[in-house]
Amino acid sequence: MTVAKRNKRVKPDPELVKLADSLLANYQKPEDLIGENGLLKQLTKMLVERALETEMSEHLGHGKSEAVTNATGNTRNGHSAKTLQGEFGELPLDIPRDRQGAFEPKLVERHQTRWTGFDDKIISLYARGLSVREIQGHLEEMYGTEVSPTLISAVTDAVSEEVKIWQARPLDALYPIVYLDCIHVKVRDSGAVRTKAVYLAIGVNMGGHKEVLGLWIAQTEGAKFWLQVITELKTRGVQDIFIACVDGLKGFPEAIEVVYPKAAVQLCIVHMVRNSLNFVSWKVQREVAADLKTIYTSLTVEMAEQTLGAFEAKWDKDYPSIGQSWRRNWERVIPFFDYPPEIRKVIYTTDEIDKPLGDIFMSSVCSAIAVVPRVLWVAPVSILRTAVDRCARPARRQPVPGRVRSSGCKRQPCLCASRAVPACRIATPGRAACGRSALDDPMRTAHCE
C-alpha cells in the first residue's frame, strides 16, 4: 500500500519571523491587527506605496534624491492621492507622479479604484440573486467600504458586454460530439424571481476537449427554440456535427436534422430510463431498471432488440407504456451501438451537461464550463443554490412517523404518504381531510369534507 507523503512544512525566513515579532510587540486584541486602523492595513499601505516608489525609480532610471540620469530629464513630481476599495475596506494611497506624466504604475494602474478581485466579488453576489442595494449593504458590512449603486451597475454592465462578445464568437467548423440540453433556473427579472429555461450546447472539439458553445435563455423549453439555437451555431461557423446527444423532447431530433442532415442524433439513455421508471411502482423499480440496463448494454443492435423483446414479454402486462416508448424512439436510441464501448460511454447521455451544472454553478463553472469567462452572468441567479432542474429518479416514498391521519377515512389500509397510489394525504390540523380523495370517489366519506 502506497502512503502519500505529507507536504513538508516550509520554514519561514528567520528575518521575517523577527520582523513579525517586532510588529506584534504591542498586540493586545484582534482590532489591533485587522481593525479599521490595524497593523495589517497600515502594513499593506506601506508595502504598496514602497512598491510604487520602486516602480517609479525603475521608470526614471534613478532613485529618490539621486541625480537625474535619463535623457529626457524627467523627474519625480510629488504624489497624487487615491483610495482603493477592496476586502480590507478603503485604503488611502499616495501614488508617485513624474513631471512628464509618462509613469504607468503596474501594481495600481491608472484610474484603478478597486483592488484586483473586488469586481469579481460584486459579480458573484449579483449572480447569487442579490439586488444592487443588497450588494451595497453586504460590502459595507463585510469590508467596511461604501460602494455606490452606480459603481455596481457599471461593473455588471461591463461583464454583460464581455458575455455578448463571448456569445457571438466564431466556432470551429467541426465538432465530433455536441451535447444539447436544457435546465430550468430561477432568474431575477425586473425585481421578481422567475423560472426560465437555459439552453446549453457543449461541444467536444477535434482535440478532445469540451467547449461551451453557447448559453441561451427562454421562458420554456421547446423544439422551435432549439431550431433557432442550432441555426445560430451554423451561422457562427459550425459546418458539421457527427453526433448530437439530446433528450427526448418532441421535435428536437427533427430540428437538428433540418440544419445538420448528416448528423447522427442520439437520445439520452439516462433520460429514457428515468422516464420509464416514472410509470413503475417503487417496489419493482430496481428490477425494471436492471432489465432496461440489459438493453442498452447489449453488444450489438440485434442483441438489444432481442433483449427489448424479452423485456416487453415480461413487463408489458403491467407497464405497456415502457415498451411502447422504447419502440417509438428506437431509431434514436441505437446510434451509439455503431461505436466501441469507450465511445458509447461518452455519447449515450446528456448528463455531460447536467454534471457541470450540478457542480459548476456550485463553485464557479465546472470543467466543461470553466472556459467561459464569468458565464454565470448569463443566468445571474441561484443556479448555485440548487436551482438546477434535474430529471431525478422518483423518490421512494416512506411513511412519516408521528403524523396524524383522518380517523374516518375508508382508506385505512393505505398508509399516509405511502407508496400506494392513490393514498390518503396526511390530515392537517383542524381539518382531518383526505386530501387526495376526488369529489366523485366512492371511497370518499362525509368526514373527508
TrEMBL record:
GO terms for biological process: DNA transposition. GO terms for molecular function: DNA binding; transposase activity. Keywords: DNA recombination, DNA-binding, Transposable element, Transposition. It comes from the Bacteria. The keyword Acetylation does not apply. It holds the Pfam family Transposase_mut. InterPro entries: Transposase_mutator (IPR001207). The keyword DNA-binding applies. Required for the transposition of the insertion element. Belongs to the transposase mutator family. PANTHER family: MUTATOR FAMILY TRANSPOSASE, TRANSPOSASE FOR INSERTION SEQUENCE ELEMENT IS1081. This is Mutator family transposase. The lineage of its organism: Bacteria, Pseudomonadati, Pseudomonadota, Betaproteobacteria, Burkholderiales.
